[in-house]
Structures are given as structure tokens and as C-alpha cells.
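Before relying on records like the one below, remember that each one covers exactly one chain. Contacts with other chains, cofactors or solvent are not represented anywhere in the record.
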Amino acid sequence: MHTVLGANGPIGEELAKELYRTFTRDIRLVSRNPAKIHDTDQLVKADLTDPEAAARAVEGSEVAYLTVGLPMDSELWERQFPVMMRNVIDACATYGTKLVFFDNTYMYPGTTTPQTESTRFEPNGRKGRVRAEIANTLLAAMAAGTVDAVICRAPEFYGPGKTKSLTNSLVFDRIKAGKRPFVPVSAKTVRSLIWTPDASRAMALIGNTPDAYGQTWHLPVDPHRLTYAELIGVAEAVTGRRIPYTVLPLAVFTVGGRFVGPLGEVEELLPRYRGDNVFDSSAFTKRFPDFAVTSYREGVTEILA
């Protein structure tokens, strides 16, 4: 049994599809309101902040994939993510279940230094501190031998379907709707964006590779990074029309955040948009050389075509 904890999001859904396609048909989908993707899927309703519910969700699983996402709300993150992580670790330890944790980069410093699996945690905001806390909680449990686990870390998303990110909502979703895209902070710095189906496929592969456990992996991105100006140029080629854009300076988010909650919630993430964002996934590429990474051109084409 392979169990997806947080099965309703874009990562969880694509993960379930890849597990079914490549590794197993014995899949359990867990969320507050799970829905089947395949006829054979087992559904379990669970609130992972409840230790008994987390234990029921994990029981009988060979591998559990923790892919839970929460709305961009710092207070909610502080209240729920650490509890969920502790409950899932305890459940996996109880039942001898391997744990694959889908992580992000919010705890990394927002500098132009390339990010590798050994980059130190230097969070500059509440959400980053929560992500550092739960990653460190799992790393400590791994080091103590409490749980056999692996961390799969991804940079900002872009992708099809239900993918949610600043890049999708401000740039590609607006282009698809025929609206003028908004570029956060700078159009001239290179971005490291991960195609959400690639993130899920890579996580399924890692979760089914025994020697991949016990460490952190950066999930694969197209190494030929583009700026927002270049990404919009690709969108122009795909749509056959000129696409003017507006750059939103940092001050827009700072001032707007005083009046519009969601703008304030993303402010701590904005330093990474001021300079080049280089997420290094070369270790994954070396270990899994046959993995086909979706290029930015292919991804933009699929979103808009």
C-alpha cells in the first residue's frame, strides 16, 4: 500500500497518477475530503492534526507520501504544520512505514547563491521558519533512526490544472485569460521553476528507490533557466500575439499587504525575485539520468496551447 497524505492538491493528484502508472495499483488517498482518481483507489478521510486519525491513515502502508499544502496563512502554518509532521512521523514509526516528504525552499536565504541540498536554513519570515522547523523535525527523526524517510524539495511551481503559485496566478493564468500579466519585482532575473507533474513523477521515483532514502533531494528543474521576460516571450510565440506586461515593484506588495492579506503573506518570499534564483538539481540528474525533465518551453506551451 502506497498512501498519499494530502491527495487533493496538484502534487498529490499527479503523484497518485504516477504511482498507479509506474509502480503500484495499491493506493490510498488521504485528505479531509478525498476523491478517487482510479477505480481501485482506497479513500480515507483524515485530519492529520489528530494523532489517531494520522495513525489510521498510515496503518498498513509500505510508503507514505506527505504532500499536504495549506493556504498562505502564517498563523495557520504555525498552528498545523508542526503538529501534522509530528503525528505523521509517529504513525510511520509505529507501523514501520517509509516516509517521503514533499518540501519547499521557503527556509533558504533569498540570495543569488545557487541552492543545493546542503544550503543552510536562513528563513526571513514566519512561513520560512515553519518550513525550517518541520524539515528539522524530520531530519532529527531520520538521524535518530526513528523513521526511514527522504525529503524531496522543490522550488516555486508552475504547471497545468490546479497548480497554484505566484508565477501561475500573476503571469500564466492572466495570459490564458487574455489579461495583462504582472511580473513580481523583476523581469530580468532568471527563475528556477518546477513543472508540477515533474515534481510528482520524481517524488514517486525517489520513493521507490531504496538507496535514495536517508537524505534530501532537490527535485528536477530545466537547467536552462529563463527570466520572466523570456518566459513571456515564449508565451508570445505560443499564442501568436504580443503580450505586454507590468512589473510590480516590491513596494506594491509592501503597501498592499497592509490592506490585502494575501499580498502581505507573500512579502517574505519576494527577496528571491530581486536576483537570479538558481535551484541546483544536478544531484538528481546524476542519480537518475534517464528522467525526462519538461523544458520551460514545453511547459508554457502546455499551459497556454
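The two ends are 37 Å apart (CA to CA).
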